[in-house]
Amino acid sequence: MSTAIVYQPEQRLELPDGQRRLIALTIYLGFAALAVGVINGLAQALSYAHINIFQYYPGMNSYYQGLTVHGVFNAIIFTFAFANGFVTLTMARGLNRKVHSGLLIAAFGSLALGSLLAAFAMFSGRASVLYTFYAPLQAHWTFYLGLVLIVVSTWITSLNLFVTLRSWRREHRGERIPLLAFISVVTYVFWDISSLGIAVETVVFVLPWSLGLVATTDPLMDRTLFWFTGHPIVYFWLLPVYISWYAMIPKQVGGKLFSDSAVRAVFLMFLCIIPIGMHHQYMDPGISSKLKFATAILTFTVFLPSLLTAFSVMYALEIGGRKRGGTGLVGWFFALPWSDPSVAAQVLAMLVFLLGGITGLMNASYSMNIEIHNTTFVPGHFHLTVGTAVALSVMGIAYWLVPYLEHRKLWSRGLAQAQAWIYAAGVLIFARGMISGGLAGMPRRTAIALAPYSEPSWHLAGIITAVGGSLMVIGALLFFLDIGLTVVIGEREEPAEIPFTETIHAPATVGWEVSFDHLRYWIAIAFVLIVVMYGPFVATHIPLASVGVPFKRF
Ligand code: HAS
Fold it and tell me: What is the rounded distance in angstroms from the CA atom of residue 287 to the CA atom of residue 92?
């Protein structure tokens, strides 16, 4: 460690005020969406304990309407808005230059308009199709158009990253792309390719169908295109958080990142291993078992980048903990700066993600999947992942990010700390309920509070789910309170710095590792793998449009 090499842009990021405000607006739109989603989540959690409060939600007329609002606002609008704002900022910080203002405005406009259209469709009861919006369920065209615009906002954001990178490269010929900028841009290249499935599904299949331009649609092709994106979307939620875990948290705990190359390799692995969406279709007819088997194998390889992340981030935390006086096998862990709510929230999110990862492994195994598919085990898994590894990390990031964007102090560090622990405790209880219920066959996406049937083995699981879910809602509301008060009445302060870590090993300037920066090679590998995995399905699929699901008039 004595030979540590520092690699970080030295200057402080001077972002024009207008750009800072737009990034803030984008992120706040995401937080507003999270608030709407979370409030609707309470009714979902209580329903498992046979408590029916759906009728108290204004404008909500059915369980599925509420569930759609919960899923779309939390999993699509919140996550995309945060990614657009945060990754634009990390790109600017990584290259120490401003981004393109016009593209920033266009991305925000597209996101805001898309969110309004989708919200209109959902709140007016014309889009109770859940956040997995494939056929045969059909929504009003405004819902699909809204989602198209939301995805377009991510593409505009990508364009902004590419334009900014290109102008940096012109001035830094032959230099390696700085790590923070590299992982930011790879996140969006990965998403651009991943989103092609949902783009085709929406524009070619469900949008014309919902407009009545075509009479029927092909549900299996539609589902397959959806899941082509529907799996990698989870890493689009996760990778902005990985940017923080890799490039920011080590600095916040006083540690350092071990290896620049390892981080680049992790992001490139995600970029290459896109086509595993069929693990959501293990139970679908019309897909060969050989393809399902190949998908299972490839799904297990996607554990690798997350395991590498676990070891790299843990090592960075350990360096920080030991510097702060922690000794022994686990002493360093308790020596971390737990009083910093940004650190506490994110480290708790990492610990919860260990369980999220294990449950993902169980989902991915074909024989286990038969047992848990369409049960509450699955929402148990994804509240440990997107619901906490992502959402709680974003809350932790917000505890330095919002003060940075507003030039104000966080309103209450104590409240922030309490919310992180309450939320983490809540999700562990919630997931315990969902997972045990799921193993006993408790179905997901079912209004248990209204169902005329129930199994005795679901009762305790349902109560645990409701208790944990309520704690999560309380934790989230405390977050909104603290962040809202920070924005409105937080004490003014000098603009803070964006935390940005050093790496022990600088990026290589010769040898094979330099090829990491040649993104076209990795993009080519991604496409080859996509053809290998999806080619056989497309080549042998018998279109079902002629006997498919008919257009319905709203
Ligand atoms: Fe998943 C279903 C498989 C990860 C989200 N997943 C879902 C759905 C969602 C979702 C939303 O194979 C439901 C979709 C729907 O509505 O139907 N998932 C996986 C696998 C992984 C995985 C193999 N999922 C995620 C992530 C998500 C997410 C991440 C959101 C962000 N998932 C599945 C499958 C299904 C599925 C099937 C279909 C189920 C069905 O039948 O319907 C893997 O990528 C997980 C790898 C993760 C790890 C954990 C690494 C841990 C880290 C933390 C480090 C901790 C530190 C602290 C540093 C291996 C990086 C350490 C300190 C100490 C002191 C210890």
Answer: 44
Contact in structure between 483 and 402 (CB atoms under 8 Å): yes
Cis peptide bond N-terminal to 232, omega within 30: no
User: Is-contact 74 42, C-beta < 8 A?
Assistant: no
% of the chain with per-residue pLDDT over 70? 96
- Over residues 215-240, the mean pLDDT reads 95
The distance in angstroms from the start CA to the end CA of the chain is 66
Strands 549-550 and 216-217: antiparallel
Q: What is the mean pLDDT of residues 261-270?
A: 96
| Rounded-to-integer distance, Cα 37 and Cα 29, Å | 12
Residue 538 has pLDDT above 80, yes or no: yes
Q: What is the DSSP letter of 132?
A: S
Coil, helix or strand for 292? helix
Q: Is the pLDDT of residue 24 over 80?
A: yes
Q: Tokens standing for 425?
A: 């405790």
The reply to whether ligand 1 has any atom less than 6 angstroms from the CB of 350 is yes
- CA–CA distance, 203 with 551 (Å, rounded to integer): 15
CA distance 446 to 434: 13
Structure tokens at 74: 């939390």
For domain 16-550, give the CATH number.
1.20.210.10
CA-wise closest residue to 526 among 276, 246, 304: 276
- The closest alpha carbon to 37, from 76, 2, 11, belongs to 76
Average pLDDT over every residue of 91-99: 95
For residue 123, give the H/E element and its range: helix 101-123
Calculate how far, in angstroms, residue 235's C-alpha sits from the geometric centre of ligand 1.
9
- Any ligand 1 atom below 6 A from CB of 241: no
3 C-alpha to ligand 1 centroid (Å): 36
Distance CA 425, CA 352 (A): 10
Three-state DSSP at 101 gives: helix
The response to whether residue 386 sits with its C-beta less than 6 Å from ligand 1 reads: yes
- Ligand 1 near 313 CB (within 6 A): yes
Q: What is the mean pLDDT of residues 11-21?
A: 87
> Hey, what are 108's tokens?
């925000």
For residue 129, report the phi and psi dihedrals to the nearest 5 degrees: -110, 5
Structure confidence at residue 349 (pLDDT): 98
Task: Count other C-beta atoms under 10 Å from residue 402's C-beta.
Answer: 22
Name residues whose C-beta falls within 8 Å of residue 213's C-beta, 6 or more positions apart in sequence: none
Please check whether residue 500 is in contact with residue 248, taking contact to mean a CB–CB distance below 8 angstroms: yes
Domain spans, the chain: 16-550
CA 489 – CA 413 distance, rounded (Å): 14
Q: pLDDT at residue 553 above 90?
A: no
Assess whether pLDDT exceeds 90 at residue 229. yes
Token digits of residue 358: 């294990």
For ligand 1, mutation pick of 343, 382, 384 (most atoms within 8 Å of CB): 382
